[in-house]
Specification:
homodimer, 209 residues, alpha/beta, Rossmann fold, seven-stranded mixed sheet, two-stranded antiparallel ribbon, 11 strands, globular, Prot/Nucl_acid_deglycase (chains A, B)
Chain lengths: 209, 209
């Protein structure tokens, strides 16, 4: 059975980080679903003229989520998914990192030894969930100050601390997503999908060759 | 007034190429709108349970377009926009490059000396529109054979031939989008927005420093 990953999305999520991660994971043979995080009030504001709900991302791209967080209540998320992923975008990451259900979900995933991944300001949700303390972590430089007291903060493009995978911003999202593919589907799969994406040679791990 | 860009989208468009281009242009101070290309039959198939129309991209990300191509009939597109952009994704690029209205639009933009840009299989639309013949061009390697007879084909990550800007795939989309920002908003703007994106240093133009 294919590994499954859940990626969170909220009003103001960084659309490049969301989309690159979602797409690269699907290329890696992983079943991906997105879950909307937000109050029903904010969902109301996002209705389009035809009555459907979508997220307006940080630079205006409008994305329709696959699920809503309440659809996964009662331990469903933990049963079904092998990884949970938090994208950045200042406003989106704020909503996600201040949501209690997300905090519980992240700490349950971490406790079960499942992959927990965050990029950019999304790393703030790791801290809110109180997980991975003293582990190596990274984030967008703009929120470094909020993380460096509680974590072993690194300025690397992707930081892997066992099952905790963090990264810096839109420009590091390909490397972030490929690290998640490797964690869930193995290094061979990572190598297999890298070529058609046409990454810059400098972004390709040397141990792939 | 801010420069304006129109980016096309169809069922099966590559969501990373679409989203990276859209987002980076907005970061560059460019007003961006997306226009759906397709038959009404295909739009029908994309209705979500709530009745709204969205595009299902190549790896399943669902995006709500800002406009539909017929909204821009009667020369509106040419009046309003300074650039037109075609993303890839095999199915999306097929739909876009086989659409007569798109071909007319692309050749009108080219005739007016406006920016025409395409990435990945999107470069096929350049050929369908019959523009830029004998100019330098690139595309995803998978469609190189369909282009190299009519164009001076290059394997570079981004190829700029006056106002015709082409590129190769999702992994080259940041460089592609930054080249469009430079063409529409100048080199200073390009440099200004590059840092927070956290590109790999090897992806940053040396002449920026």
């Amino acid at each position: 059975m294919a590994p499954k990953a859940l990626i969170l999305i909220a009003q103001g999520t960084e659309e490049m980080e969301f989309t690159i991660t979602y797409d690269v994971l699907v290329r890696g043979g992983i079943e991906v679903q997105s879950a909307f995080v937000g109050s029903s009030a904010s969902a109301q504001n996002s209705q389009d003229p035809h009555g459907s709900e979508y997220v307006t991302c940080s630079r205006g791209v409008k994305i329709v989520p696959d699920l809503r967080l309440p659809d996964l209540a009662g331990g469903k998320a933990l049963e079904e998914y092998d990884a949970i992923i938090v994208p950045g975008g200042v406003k989106g990451a704020e909503t996600i990192s201040q949501n209690d259900d997300v905090a519980k979900l992240l700490s349950a995933f971490a406790a079960k030894g499942k992959v927990v991944a965050a990029i950019c300001a999304g790393s703030l949700a790791i801290k809110s969930a109180g997980i991975g303390k003293d582990n190596a972590i990274t984030s967008h430089p703009s929120v470094k100050a909020e993380l460096e007291k509680d974590y072993h903060y690194k300025d690397d493009r992707v930081v892997i601390a066992d099952k905790l995978i963090t990264s810096r911003g839109p420009g590091t999202a390909f490397e972030f997503a490929l690290a998640i593919v490797e964690a869930l589907a193995g290094k061979e799969k990572r190598v297999e999908i890298t070529d058609p994406i046409i990454l810059h040679p400098a972004q390709i791990q040397h141990d792939q060759e």
